[in-house]
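agent> fetching stored inputs for the adenosine-5'-diphosphate docking request
agent> found them:
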Amino acid sequence: MNILVLNAGSSSLKYQLINMENESILAKGSAEKIGNKDSFITHKYGNEKIMDESFFENHEVVVDNVLNFLTTHVISSIDEIKAIGHRIVHGGELFKHAAIIDDSVIKGIEDCSDLAPLHNPAHLKGIYACKKLNIPMVAVFDTAFHQTMPEECFIYPIPYEFYEKYKIRKYGFHGTSHKYVSQRASEILEKNLDDLNIITCHLGNGASLCAIKNGKSYNTSMGFTPLAGVMMGTRSGDIDPAIISYLMEKENLTSKQIDDILNKKSGLLGISGISNDCRDIENEAWNNGNKRAQLALDKFGLRVKETLGSYAAILNGVDAIVFTAGLGEMSPETREFICKDLEHFGIKLDYNLNKSIRGKEAIISSSDSKTTVLVVPTNEELMIARETMELVSQ
Ligand code: ADP
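agent> prediction call returned; pasting tokens
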């Protein structure tokens, strides 16, 4: 049985076709910079790699391209795809588990769109594009892993009636990724996940940290929406909430406009004024001495470090720190910035080793570090495929 997993990010779409009999990947690929003129998609199957540098205007065009590629090179027809698993960022209070997609689930995902304006609409485009194929589809929600958070972690210090009335609480996101990398860390460390306290740092275009206590999500940096927590590519993360009403009055902004500024024009892009892509910012900072680019990088690292420190304070001992996603996997400089001067916390990086690790599993702490620091490339697709398989097999 093959499962096709679609993972549509804000500016990317990754897919994998997985043979669930042995969990082997039959084909995989990723589209990057969707919506930009220099967008491209890479398909890999066996030892073959195909790159298509067409202009991918939106996620729907990418989905069509993926299915066309698969039926041309990997499988004889779409009948060989038993189910499609979609990664969905926000399930609100409606979805506590993965769900088989029908019209009511689509409506539910639509209803949650205003909570994740960069993500849910992109996922829905993927779902609509696949609907005509008549293949069972499953929605796997990033919010599910964090359902184990205790009330003192998920409640906001605003009048309690707003939780009762509107369910305003911390939901947390990237759950599938935090779950996968914490499981992999326990396997690498050869320890039972239930016995481990881990801080997982998912640092991509969207970024979040998770404090995992005895294998379960105990606290996480994203909140009611994926706008909360550390600073991100285009998102502000946590700021003084009074800035919002102050700016709305000064600039005569509507709530939609302020939402747009905080979701799409802030973060690395907002401070640097250059890009939301860390590679562009690093290039400007390091090769052209651009001070605002350097400031953006420093602020990003600092926000992650501050959050990491606060989680170390609530976990009563940290067995492992795991870096994952674009920056966590590919930027040794970011990892060094975050981990340096934390020796008194028992966190000691092997700086030379760290420099050489990009995009592969590795332990990057020194042998005398109390906390083991790891790089674990995330595999949300495999987690989604397993949950999809479970639901369609029932
Ligand atoms: P998303 O899926 O949310 O779009 P990713 O996990 O793909 O995000 O991460 C994207 C981020 O990772 C971008 O800021 C990008 O610049 C950064 N990144 C990817 N590769 C590298 C690299 N080689 N060096 C530095 N940063 C990188």
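agent> quick read of the result: The mean pLDDT is 94.
agent> awaiting further instructions
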